[in-house]
Amino acid sequence: MTKLFLVRHGQSLWNLENRFTGWQNIDITDAGIEEAKKAGIALKGQKINIAFTSVLIRAQHTLTIILDEMGKPDIPVIMDKALNERSYGDLEGLNKAETALKYGDEQVHAWRRSYDVVPPGGESLKDTYNRVIPYFEKEIVPLLRKDENVLIVAHGNSLRALIMYLENLSPDEILEREIATGVPITYIFDEHFHVSRKEN
């Protein structure tokens, strides 16, 4: 049975500092490196044919560590901005708590946690879904249908969009879903390309 492995990058510096990161190219912390190593250990022994990641360093660094830990540093890797984190536009780099003081908790909560409210100059989760899913269907689904196992190392919101698609979740349901850094999620497909099982 074909497997799809999803991993959110290890903790980044701006995760630690509670900043909006979005498309900013911020690397992972020492804790993030350890999370990536644990993800690699958890995936050791799994057959993976190809890996995908975003163009952002925190996801690429995490993927490199995972493949090294698995003893598979030579697996083909494809990088594409379609898998980037959701853009937070003008909020990127700002501290989340300070932003809430400036704009109000309710407004910041709407920017962060609604499905279709767009932060200034950025993307909603709906916008993120509308770039991630066409890329997934065009570039990744054909590989899965050929029984190739795929690893995707990406970001909280790009993976949230993908999980929404794979599990057929509503906007309200996906907004309740938290994705931990550096913890693999495995989807197993049957011969009809339906998700038959999910493993965390």
UniProtKB/TrEMBL annotation:
The keyword Amino-acid biosynthesis does not apply. It comes from the Bacteria. Pathway: Carbohydrate degradation; glycolysis; pyruvate from D-glyceraldehyde 3-phosphate: step 3/5. Transmembrane segments: none annotated. Keywords: Gluconeogenesis, Glycolysis, Isomerase. Substrate binds at residues 8-15, 21-22, 58, 85-88, 96, 112-113, 156-157. Pfam families: His_Phos_1. Its EC number is 5.4.2.11. It is an enzyme of class 5 (isomerase). Signal peptide: none annotated. One of its GO terms (molecular function) is phosphoglycerate mutase activity. The record marks 155 as: Transition state stabilizer. PANTHER family: PHOSPHOGLYCERATE MUTASE. Belongs to the phosphoglycerate mutase family. BPG-dependent PGAM subfamily. Catalyzes the interconversion of 2-phosphoglycerate and 3-phosphoglycerate. This is 2,3-bisphosphoglycerate-dependent phosphoglycerate mutase. The gene is gpmA.
